[in-house]
Each structure stands twice: as structure tokens, then as C-alpha cells.
Amino acid sequence: MTTSMAATHAASKRLKDAIFGASAACAEAAKKHGADKVTNATMGVMMDDEGKLASIPTMERVFRSLSVEDYVRYAPIPGLPDYLEAVIDLTFADQKPEGYTAAIATAGGTGAIHHAVANYAERGDKVLTSDWFWGTYNVICNECGCQLTNYALFDENNNFNIAAYTAKVDEIMKTQDSLLVIINTPAHNPTGFSLTEEDWDKVLDLTKKYAAQGKKMSILVDIAYIDYAGEKNETRKFMKKFGNLPANIFVMFAFSMSKGYTAYGQRTGALVAVSSSEEVITEFKEINKYTSRATWSNINRGAMTLLAKISADKETLAQFEKERDEFYQMIQERGMLFMKEAKECGLNALPYKGGFFLSVPAKDPQAVCDKLHDDLIFAVPLKMGVRIAACSVSAAKMKGIAAKVLKALKAV
Ligand code: PLP
Prior knowledge:
The chain is an alpha/beta fold and 412 residues long. The protein has two domains: 18-56 and 318-411, Aspartate Aminotransferase, domain 1 (Alpha-Beta Complex); 75-312, Aspartate Aminotransferase, domain 2, CATH 3.40.640.10. It is 44% helix and 15% strand. It is built from 16 helices and twelve strands. It has helices at residues 18-33, 57-64, 68-72, 81-92, 108-120, 136-143, 162-173, 197-212, 232-235, 257-260, 278-295, 301-312, 314-345, 365-372, 395-398, 401-411; strands at residues 39-40, 100-106, 126-130, 147-151, 178-184, 216-222, 249-256, 269-275, 357-361, 377-378, 380-381, 385-389. The strands form three sheets. The chain has a seven-stranded mixed sheet, sandwiched between helices. Strands 9-12-11 form a three-stranded antiparallel sheet. It has a two-stranded parallel sheet with strand order 1-10. The radius of gyration is 21 Å and the shape is globular. Pyridoxal-5'-phosphate binds at residues 44, 108-110, 134, 184, 189, 222, 224, 254, 256, 258, 264, 269. Pyridoxal-5'-phosphate (PLP) binds at residues 44, 108-110, 134, 184, 189, 222, 224, 254, 256, 258, 264, 269.
């Protein structure tokens, strides 16, 4: 007889981590064959071309300059005021929509997603995201008593599938009075895809249609990779569209310091909100502060101070952004090299625009990944395909991978 002490609603929780298995196999191969022979395309952190963890120098310098007080004192539950103000500015740059805005500090982007689901999706309701998605969305929805459901992200031409999106929203709105949609753009994980301005117009038209019927429509834009997607104001242009929307359309952003500051383990982010209603924003601050108190209390003071300090000085910020941009260029070059080779050899890679990852659809992703081990390439098998980390594979090692993926696809 098996014994379970867990509460009935908790007993079946199991975290499946495809990335862990793949990276363990890679570590094993590196030991056997030498790290230089092995391509580790499993990692979600940025590595430089020498294979070392990439850290933005100004981040490192400012972080090391903080006092012990900055590191260890408690912070206010909603976050340090200077941090929150800076986060709002960084989220929107010059594309701030008309309306009221607010931010609350969270444990990374993950914490921001958690708070959005916990507070803006009814228990038992469906939360909508695309079929290519970051698996953690599912875990968070389950934990919050909601159910994640998907629409097909791509149409037959690998463009945003507005027809599939519309059909799914229509279906859900037959039974729900409210809906939370999670859209990870720009530079989506795991595909590197970004919605265009026109895609956003269509998404918002549909949202407005249901809002006009009295439904509560919330959109969470997960911008975890926005700083590796292109020029600051270009990548944020769509945000202007969120101004002057009806009060029953609520837009939030999951902001993260993990990638943008190369500060993954410091676990600092924010949930940022925009609304035409002051009441909605006041409520946002109250309910999320409550949820923070109930989950982690307050957030890493050192990391919040780091971000506020970088933002407080124009020159420091400019230097920081310049350094980060060099890393963006480095990843972009790797991603584009893969896409160029994919096109040349006829591999159907999904439309990578930027960010840490790119993906190739596969019927049996695990078998393709296993086959790639023959070439000492280690990638992550997802439900719908194989994910390759442009963030961690040097351009030299990226060369030739597309053809090897094609070979593996044909072999299984
Ligand atoms: N959103 C996506 C799509 C991600 O891939 C990640 C990190 O892997 C995050 C959000 C948030 O990461 P963190 O909680 O480290 O800020």
C-alpha cells in the first residue's frame, strides 16, 4: 500500500522537467568526450562564445558596489518605490500607453505570471495561451485551480493564427464571463516568434468585441525576452495600443530581471499593469500586495536596488544598455545563422525573430533529440518539437546544426 500524507488536491503534483533530463545527458557526454566536442543547446541562460556564463558588466559592477544593508534589509511588500517607478519606465520606454499604470515586485517573471493567474482568472476557468508555450504556465494554472488551454500559434504559412485564436476565444466565451490570455511576445519561448502590429490589432479587436458584451477581458503580455528582440522602441511599439481601452479590458506585463539583467538567480521581476480606470489600478495594487504577503512577503532588496541604481544615472543606463545590446547581437547572429542554414537545407524551422530559443516541429521530439546525441548535440524535447537554445550555443557550434536536425528528423 502506498502512503500519501498530501492533501487530496496536492497528492498528484509532479513536476516534469524535460530540460533537466536533457542537460544531465549533456553533462555526461561532456565528461566522456570533452566539453568542446559537445553542443549544449538545452540551457535557458546566456553563454558567451567561449562557453562561459554571460553577465552584463555594468550589472556586475553596480551589484558588487551595494552595501550589506542593500542586500539584507527587508523591502516593502509591494517593492521599493524607486524600483517600481523604474520598472514602469523600462517596460514601456517611449511607448507608454495613455492611462493609469502600476507595478508590484514579484519573484521573477514567474511570480508575475503567478499573481496574474491567481488574481485575474476565476477558479476553475480556462486560461488561454498558444500551443507552443512555456510549460510553467500550465504548472501555475494548475496550482491556482485554473485550467490552461491552447490555440494553434501558427497558420500554414507560419504566421500568427488569428483564426485559431478567434475560434478558441469564441468557444471559451460561450461559458465564461471573464478570460485571462497569456501572450509571450516579443521573442517567444520556445520559438523566437513575435506578434506583429497587425496581429495585435486583431487580438485587440476580438477583445473589444467581448468587452462590449460586458465580459471581463485580461491580457498578460509575458515580456521576459523583450530586451533580446530588437531596438527598444520598435519592440515596444505595440504597447501604445493599450491606451484608452474600456475599463473591462485589463492589460498586464510580466517583467523579469532574469534575462534582461542576467540576474536569473536573484529572482526579481514585476507585474506591471495599465488601465483606463483608476479604480482597477488601485484594486490591482491592493490584491497583488495581499497575494505577495501570502506567498513570499517581500522581494530581493539587493536586486531591486541594482535595477533602480542603474536606471537612476543616465550614463550608467546607457552603458548597461550598450553592453546588453552586444549580447543581443551575439544571440541574434546565432539564431539567424540557424535560420539561414535551415532555409538552405529545407528544414521547417519555426519563424525565429529573436530571443533565447528557436524550435523545430517534430512528431517524436524525444526520438529526434536522442538521435541528435549521435552528433553530440543536446536539445530539449518539447511536446510539439525540439527546442534549441540560441542563447547558449556559440556561432561556431551553431554552424551545421540545422542540417543535423534535418538528418535526425529523417532518421526517426
Ligand atoms: N516567461 C518565459 C516565457 C520564460 O521562459 C521565463 C524564464 O525562463 C520567464 C517568463 C520568467 O523567468 P523568471 O521567473 O526567471 O523571471
